[in-house]
Each structure stands twice: as C-alpha cells, then as structure tokens.
C-alpha cells in the first residue's frame, strides 16, 4: 500500500512484487482519509478477507429485513471506513454473534488490498480471418419460385443475399451433401432453409401433411428450435400445404404426439426429445425424409448429443431408402466434424466463407474404410470433443481458425477475484448510459450462478424483473432476465421471448444461450466466466455484431488466467485489454449510482474505492442477512468451483483449480469466506462413497493465492462419474444441458 499526501493510495496489487510482474492500474484515491491498515493474516498466512468496523449500529436492521425494497444500507463515512474493530474470525461469512437473518453492520470489505499482481499482457499481432458478409447477388437472381422471392423480399425484408447464402443455396439446390461454415450472424438459417422449401414446394406428387417429415432439422437447444421454426413458418407462407413443426423437451409430449399424427413436413427438433418420440410415438415415420440438417453440427456431435444423433440417423437410414441430402452447419466446424463428414456424407462440398473454399472436396480420412454402421463411423469424430473418460476437450486438438464479426470490439479485463462482483455491476450499470438503452448478455458458468446473480441484482434499485404474467414489474429501471437449463420450460420460453422483444435489459445466462440465438439489438456480451473452448468463445460473442452490426464483448480474466489470451490468439482472435480502472470508474456515474442505490439518489460516492466498497458491503449484507440468500450464494460458489474443475485438460495449465484463491472467489459471491464444507460438496468421496480422510488431501501451495486444493480431490471418482453419466442421460432426455457448465 502506498501513501501519498496524507491520503492513502490503495492499489489492486499486493505489497510483494514477484519477478516479471508489473504493477498496473493504480486506483486514484485522493479522497479517502484513512489510516494505513495492517492486513490480518489467517492461520494459513493468507490475508483474512475481512476487516472490522466499529460502530455503525444505527438503522440498518429494518431496511435489511425489507429486501424486496432493494438494498438500503447506509454509506460509510470517513470515520467508519478508517476504523477497525477486533478481528473476529468468521465461518461462512457469519460473524460469531450473528445469526442468519440479522444484518451485519460491523465489517468492512478489504476489496482493494492484497489482491494478486495484475500482470502486464503483451498482445501479439494477429491477422484475423475476414469474411465479407453480403454478396453482390440478389435473391431474385436465383432460380427460385417467384412467390419465394417476393416473400423473402416483402415479408422478410431481404433482397441481397449474404455471402454464405450466395454460395450455399445453389449448391444445396443441386442436391449435394454440404458442410457450411460461416461467421455467426451471417444468415446460415436461410442458407439451408430456402433450398429445402424451394424443393419441397416443387415436389410431385404434391407434398401432403399426412406424408410426415421430408426434412429434419436438428438443433441443440429449445430456444434455437423455436427460432428456426419461426423462420420456417415465415418462409413457407406462400406454400400453405407445407407444414413445419417443432418438437422439444419441456413441452407436453401428448400434444406433440397429436401434431405428429396430424403430420409435420419440416420437422425441427432437439435430439433428446426426438429420440423419445422415435421410441414411443408410432405415428412418427421417416420413410420420406430427403433432407437432414444438423445446425450447430459441432455442438450436436459433442458429448451428450452424439449418441442421440446416432440413434436418429440410424432410425432414418433404416426407414428411408430415398437418396438423402445431409447438411452440416456451424460457425465453428472443427477438424473432427470435417473428418466425420468425410465418412458419413457422400462427396461432400465444403463451403467455408472465410477460406473461400467453395466446392473444395474434403481430403480422405485415414480410417474411412471402417464399418458401414453410422454409429461406428461417428465414433472417431470424438477426437474433437469432450470424452467422458478423459474429460479432454476440443481446444488444441482441432486447430481450426475461426472468424468473428468485423465490427465486434473484443476486450478482456484482468479482474482480481475479490473485485469481480463490483466490476460486473459497474459494467451492467455503465452499459445503460445511453438513453435509448442497451441489451447485454452475461454468460455465467452454472445455473446456480445465474440464479444467485439474478436474485442479487434484483435487490438493486435500478432493476426490474418480469412478473409471472410476462409483464415487467412496476419498478422502473433496467429489466433483468435469466436463461438456463434448469428453468421450467414455460419460464425459459417466456424469458427468451421477453428478452428478444425488450428494448433494453440484461440477460444472465449459461451457454444455453450461446448457440444460434438471434436476439435483436444485443450490444454487449460479457463473459464473466471463461468459456470451455475457443469455439464456445466465438459462439458467445457471436450473439452481438450480427449481420454487419456493431457490438462489444468483454471477457473477465483473473490475474492467474491471462494466458487464456494466447488460446484465443492461436485461433486468430484479436482481443485488447480494457483497464479495470475504466470499468470501475462507471460506478461513479449517476446512472450507476441510480442503478445501485436508488433511494440514495444524490448522495454521491467520493471515490471509486468508496463506491466499490459500499457496493460490496451491500451485496455481502444482502447475502448474509437472509438464510435463503446465504444458501443460494454457497450453492453458486460450489457450482462455480465444480465448473472450474471441469475445464478440458488442454486448458488445465491455465485454468487449474489450485490457482484459485477460494476466499477471494467466495467474495465474488458475497460470502466473506469460502464455505468450510467445500471439499465434501465437491466430490471428496472415494469409490465406495465413503469420505476421504481429511489428511489424505494434498495441500501444496504454489502461491499466496493458491486454493490449496488438489484437483484429484475435486475430480469425481469412477462411481461418481458413472452416477453423473446416468444423471446426464436422464437430464438429456428432459432436454437439459449435459455439461455441468451449461
Ligand atoms: N440476406 C439477408 N439480409 C439481411 N439480413 C439477413 C439476411 N439473411 C438473414 N438475415 C438476418 O440475419 C440474422 C442472422 O441470421 P441467422 O440467425 O440465420 O445467422 P447464423 O449465421 O445462423 O448465426 P449463428 O452462427 O449465430 O447461428 C437474422 O436476423 C436474419 O433474419
């Protein structure tokens, strides 16, 4: 800690300066008149994350109890921030004399002290892959039905084709199996949907509803299924005899069976629900299927979906003798998917808009002489995705260059764990400076984390949420939405539609929203947790800057995680640093103050530190004064640790659980200390299900900020893996996300 001119300058960095690390981002601290504090050390020699404040016993009780009215804790004055009570060691954020449900007024967060060094990151020169979004060709120049052209022009409002449409539509009309790879948000849905509808409307004898599916479109999530179905409904408008339909988990199976019996000609489905119908719905036949489209193909062939996709393809092959056209589509087709395509597709054409590989045939796969069953052929393609046994991921194995939208501004911020929550709030509040509002997606690592932050932000005065009936709550302010795989189907769809239609708002979500969703007017993507692969990164940021528009993306990195930038640079992704100071300075804007404090409008914070510290205190009080909130925070913290332990092995040198400081990470969940049962909750049991001896846990420190956890104690045993696999299968049948992060 430096002190200048009587005031104290608090840095984000600790006192000790390791080799190769440079102090960066000092936060100016002119106004806080505090005495230099001596950090308390806990028994492990780490800083005790809490310091204590005398007094301030006045008035917080009533407001704290009344959580529905938002945060309402007093600001700290100079005296309060400077004073320090006797250190009382706390467990799970509870002070010794405090019961859950009581406000906790006597603790000051030491947010800006004893954080790890913020390393200086040297950005490497990257030559980005470029894609021209629009072609110079009009839809009217294609050999399409005149009604199709007028429908696209008048009802959809498009006359000029995108590059991927210009290349894919003629190829698909020609009847060839095709792989389509093009940036996110470049119109790939129409690139496959237009040729399917064009050919269907021309079939003789004319298509009848009772004939059942001619085209099958598989997508990985329910929201994407809805979206693709809605596009098809618009596209078939002039051809009323063609019936599109959608099947997805969470919907009533009985009504779906009824619709299948009546007949669906273009069937959009998620894999799990379709397998369910294949097994239980007699009326579902594939005898006339001519087109099979795998949208987000790399995701569909990933762990979890691959088995269902195999079942579906085998069912189609058994029932249908027709010549079929198969199309694989994604912004990130990995080498694994291409190898798979080479053995399962007939003379496939690969359309890669970035590489201009129009009509380039794929090289032969070394094992293409393998068995003819689809299931056997699918297996080798797993090289590019996660495997259950090893937990290995695709990063690094399938070195494939991705391209991102040209008008997307990509940034990262190095944020010490303790400052994550206030930095996120600063972004959320700061993103809403423009009077016209802004739409933002915040990606988090688990359903529990989404729920925790959703509850937490609701307590901010400047937030409004959706009511049961789908209308906004009375409170004026920035609408808050959430989306994850553990929500009820009704709520998922309600949130998805409400956010799509909203003029402004923040959607807190898991990777369930990462693929394919075309949510209008999204300007900001915040990745609060690092994605599991560069491909996931590309899809997440691809929810903005679509079809040539502008957008911004920000990736949160802890100081120990900065090497992740190299993973992105290897994929030719250019990303710049956004100084943390700049982000936190948003806390001083009137918008942020209104957002956070509401009723304290006009009562200005005097420095970034004061604003951040008060905010963190409010959050901690919110968490600790209510048992349900404390439980929710602990659950979210556990799920965060679990997700962290499941990063693919190729990323473990960067994202290793040992590198986490659990106490600091806990602070980002409003907890003042990591829950004491962390090991029990994260799989500290052996194969027989009995608890491991405490002393069997390896505790080896690499730094002051080391979690002290050994990954082997976090990684599940064989039995746990088998149980988890069973559970995943069950969840998948209900169409929930298979990966713990999702
Ligand atoms: N020719 C076009 N002109 C203008 N807008 C278009 C055109 N074709 C499609 N769009 C619009 O572009 C947006 C993105 O389309 P779409 O969702 O199909 O992209 P995508 O390439 O599939 O994205 P992702 O890879 O994220 O799934 C949609 O809003 C769509 O209506």
From TrEMBL:
Residues 732-742 have a biased composition (Basic and acidic residues). One of its GO terms (cellular component) is nucleus. Belongs to the DEAD box helicase family. DDX31/DBP7 subfamily. Residues 98-109 have a biased composition (Polar residues). It catalyses: ATP + H2O = ADP + phosphate + H(+). Residues 137-166 form the DEAD-box RNA helicase Q domain. It comes from Strongylocentrotus purpuratus. Residues 169-351 form the Helicase ATP-binding domain. This is ATP-dependent RNA helicase.
């Amino acid at each position: 800690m430096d002190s200048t001119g009587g005031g104290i300058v608090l840095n984000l960095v600790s006192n000790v300066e390791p080799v190769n690390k440079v102090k960066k981002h000092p936060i100016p601290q002119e106004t806080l008149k505090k005495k230099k504090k001596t950090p308390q050390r806990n028994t492990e020699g780490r800083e005790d994350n809490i310091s204590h404040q005398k007094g301030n016993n006045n008035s917080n009780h009533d407001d704290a109890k009344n959580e529905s009215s938002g945060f309402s804790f007093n600001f700290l004055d100079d005296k309060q921030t400077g004073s320090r009570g006797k250190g009382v060691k706390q467990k799970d954020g509870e002070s010794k004399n405090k019961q859950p449900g009581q406000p906790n007024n006597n603790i000051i967060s030491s947010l800006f002290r004893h954080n790890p060094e913020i390393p200086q990151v040297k950005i490497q020169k990257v030559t980005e892959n470029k894609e021209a979004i629009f072609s110079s060709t009009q839809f009217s120049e294609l050999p399409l039905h005149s009604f199709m052209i007028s429908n696209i022009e008048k009802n959809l409002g498009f006359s000029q084709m995108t590059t991927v449409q210009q290349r894919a539509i003629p190829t698909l009309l020609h009847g060839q199996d095709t792989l389509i790879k093009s940036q996110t948000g470049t119109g790939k849905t129409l690139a496959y949907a237009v040729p399917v509808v064009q050919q269907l409307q021309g079939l003789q004898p004319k298509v009848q509803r009772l004939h059942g599916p001619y085209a099958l479109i598989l997508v990985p999530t329910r929201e994407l299924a809805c979206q693709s179905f809605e596009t098809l409904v618009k596209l078939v408008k002039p051809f009323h005899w063609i019936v599109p339909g959608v099947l997805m988990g969470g919907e009533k199976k009985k009504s779906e069976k009824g619709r299948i019996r009546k007949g669906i000609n273009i069937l959009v489905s998620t894999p799990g629900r379709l397998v369910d119908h294949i097994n239980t719905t007699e009326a579902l036949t594939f005898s006339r299927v001519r087109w099979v489209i795998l949208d987000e193909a790399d995701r569909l062939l990933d762990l979890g979906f691959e088995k269902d996709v195999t079942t579906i393809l085998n069912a189609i092959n058994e029932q249908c003798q027709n010549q079929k056209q198969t199309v694989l589509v994604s912004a990130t087709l990995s080498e694994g998917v291409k190898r798979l395509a080479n053995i399962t597709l007939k003379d496939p054409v690969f359309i890669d808009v970035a590489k201009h590989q129009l009509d380039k045939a794929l090289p032969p796969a070394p094992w293409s002489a393998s068995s003819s069953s689809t299931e056997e052929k699918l297996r080798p393609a797993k090289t590019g995705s996660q495997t259950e046994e090893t937990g290995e991921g695709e990063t690094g194995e399938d070195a494939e260059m991705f391209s991102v939208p040209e008008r997307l501004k990509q940034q990262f911020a190095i944020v010490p764990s303790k400052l994550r929550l206030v930095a996120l709030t600063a972004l959320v509040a700061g993103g809403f400076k423009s009077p016209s509002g802004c739409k933002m997606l915040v990606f988090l690592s688990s359903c529990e984390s989404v729920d925790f932050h959703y509850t937490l932000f609701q307590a901010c005065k400047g937030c409004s949420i959706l009511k049961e009936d789908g209308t906004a709550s009375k409170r004026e302010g920035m609408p808050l939405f959430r989306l994850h795989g553990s929500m009820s189907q009704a709520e998922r769809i309600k949130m998805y539609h409400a956010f799509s239609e909203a003029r402004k708002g923040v959607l807190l979500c898991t990777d369930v929203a990462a693929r394919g969703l075309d949510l209008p007017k999204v300007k900001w993507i915040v990745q609060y947790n690092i994605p599991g692969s560069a491909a996931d990164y590309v899809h997440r940021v691809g929810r903005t800057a679509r079809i040539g528009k502008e957008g911004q993306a920000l990736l949160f990195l802890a100081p120990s995680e900065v090497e992740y930038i190299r993973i992105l640079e290897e994929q030719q992704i250019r990303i710049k640093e956004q100084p943390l100071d700049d982000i936190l300075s948003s806390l001083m804007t009137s918008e942020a103050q209104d957002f956070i404090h509401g009723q304290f409008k006009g009562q200005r914070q005097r420095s970034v530190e004061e604003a951040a510290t008060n905010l963190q205190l409010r959050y901690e009080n919110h968490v600790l004064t209510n048992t349900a909130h404390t439980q929710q925070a602990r659950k979210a913290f556990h799920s965060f640790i679990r997700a962290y332990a499941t990063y693919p092995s190729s990323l473990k040198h960067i994202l290793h659980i040992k590198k986490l400081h659990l106490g600091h990470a806990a602070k980002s969940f409003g907890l003042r200390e990591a829950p004491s049962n962390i090991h029990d909750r994260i799989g500290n049991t052996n194969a027989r299900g009995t608890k491991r001896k405490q002393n069997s846990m390896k505790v080896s420190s690499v730094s002051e900020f080391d979690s002290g956890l050994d990954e082997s104690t976090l990684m599940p045993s064989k039995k746990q893996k088998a149980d988890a696999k069973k559970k995943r299968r069950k969840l998948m049948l209900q169409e929930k996300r298979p990966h713990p992060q999702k």
